[in-house]
Specification:
This protein is of the alpha/beta class. The chain is built from 11 helices and 10 strands. The chain folds into 2 domains: 256 residues, Vaccinia Virus protein VP39 (Rossmann fold); 37 residues, no CATH class. The strands form 2 sheets. An 8-stranded mixed β-sheet has the order 1-10-9-2-3-7-6-8. A hairpin with a 2-residue loop joins strand 4 and strand 5. The chain is globular and about 60 Å long.
C-alpha cells in the first residue's frame, strides 16, 4: 500500500491523504504549515504572503483545530520513537498573543524541545513590539513504550544548541521557504548515519524537506494542495544534486573533537564540579582563581 506514495509528491488535501497512509511508517517529519496570517498582514518592507491554491485566512479556532487534526494524523503514521519538527511562529491578533503551544498541547505528541530559529531578518518593521526576527521549531516526539525522553542525541548533533541561526531561502518562488540547512539538520540529527528511512512533509511547498531527505539517503513523501508547488517540488527533486553542497556545509557543522565521555576516560578536565576536580581541590582552586581574574 505504501508503494504508491513512496518517493512521490502528492497533490491534494493533507488530511485526506494522511488518513489513507498506514500506521507507524514514518521516521521523521519536517514541516511548516501556512501560519494563518490573514494574507493582508504585512510590514512596510514585506509583501503580502499569499499561497497558491489555499487561503491563509481561516477563523482562528478552525485553523487551530485543523492543525490538531493534521498533527494527530502525523502521530499515527509515525513509528514509535519517531520525531516531527514543526516550524511555526508567534502571532498577534488585536493585541492577543496566538502561541503554537495553544494547540500543540492538545495533540498526542510529547513536546520534546522548543528550538529558536533566528532568521536574521526583521519580518515587520512596525514599532508596537521589538522586531520579531525569530520563528519556532518544535521537536515533537512519539514515545516508544513508556519512555517520554527518547534516545540521546550524539554530541556532534547536540552541540548545535537550541538556537539555530540562518536566513530563509531567498531565491525561491514559494512565498515562505525555509533553507535547506533546516531540514538537513533536523533529519541528520535524529537519523544520524542511518539510511533508507522515511521522511514526510505534509506541507511540502517547494520541496525543501524532500530534497534534504533524498540527499541524506532517505525515502520521502510530500503532500501539498497546490499543483504549482507540487510541480516545483518535483522539478527541484530531479535536480537535487545541484543542492548537495549546501547540505554538506550543514553536515560539516556536526563535529565534536572529543566527547565528554572521552575526556573523562582520559582524565581530562570535564567541568569544575566534576568528581575529577573534587578529588583534586588544588586544580579546582586554580580554575576558580582564573575565573575571578577573567570576570
Amino acid at each position: 500500500m505504501i508503494d504508491k506514495y513512496l518517493n512521490k509528491v502528492i497533490c491534494g488535501d493533507v488530511l485526506t491523504i494522511l488518513r489513507n497512509l498506514p500506521d507507524n511508517i514514518v521516521d521523521v517529519s519536517v514541516t511548516s504549515p501556512p501560519y494563518n496570517k490573514g494574507e493582508n498582514k504585512k510590514g512596510w518592507l514585506v509583501a503580502n504572503v499569499k499561497y497558491s491554491g489555499v487561503s491563509d485566512r481561516l477563523p482562528e479556532d478552525v485553523y487551530q483545530q485543523n492543525q490538531i487534526d493534521v498533527l494527530n494524523e502525523l502521530f499515527r503514521v509515525t513509528k514509535p520513537g519517531g520525531s516531527l519538527f514543526y516550524n511555526h511562529k508567534l502571532r498577534w491578533e488585536r493585541g492577543q498573543l496566538l502561541h503554537p503551544m495553544d494547540w500543540l498541547r492538545k495533540t498526542r505528541w510529547v513536546i520534546r524541545q522548543e528550538i529558536i530559529w533566528d532568521r536574521m531578518i526583521a519580518a515587520n518593521i512596525r514599532g508596537w513590539r521589538f522586531w520579531q526576527v525569530e520563528e519556532r521549531i518544535y521537536w515533537l516526539y512519539k514515545p516508544n513504550g513508556k519512555s517520554l525522553i527518547g534516545d540521546e542525541l550524539k554530541p556532534k548533533h547536540a552541540l548545535l544548541t537550541s538556537i539555530w541561526r540562518f536566513p530563509p531561502e531567498r531565491n525561491n518562488p514559494h512565498p515562505a521557504p525555509f533553507p535547506l540547512e533546516l531540514p538537513v539538520r533536523c533529519i541528520y540529527s535524529v537519523m544520524d548515519d542511518k539510511k533508507e528511512g522515511l521522511v514526510i512533509d505534509p506541507y511540502c511547498g517547494s520541496g525543501t524537506t524532500l530534497v534534504a531527505a533524498k540527499i541524506l539517503g532517505h525515502n520521502y513523501i510530500g503532500i501539498d494542495i497546490s499543483e504549482e508547488y507540487c510541480r516545483l517540488a518535483e522539478e527541484r527533486i530531479k535536480n537535487y544534486e545541484d543542492e548537495i553542497r549546501f547540505a554538506e556545509e550543514e553536515i560539516a557543522k556536526h563535529v565534536v573533537s572529543k566527547t565528554f565521555k572521552q575526556r573523562k576516560e582520559a582524565g581530562e578536565f570535564t567541568g569544575k564540579y566534576s568528581k575529577l576536580n573534587r578529588d583534586k581541590p588544588e586544580k579546582l582552586h586554580l580554575f576558580r582563581t582564573s575565573e575571578i581574574k577573567q570576570g
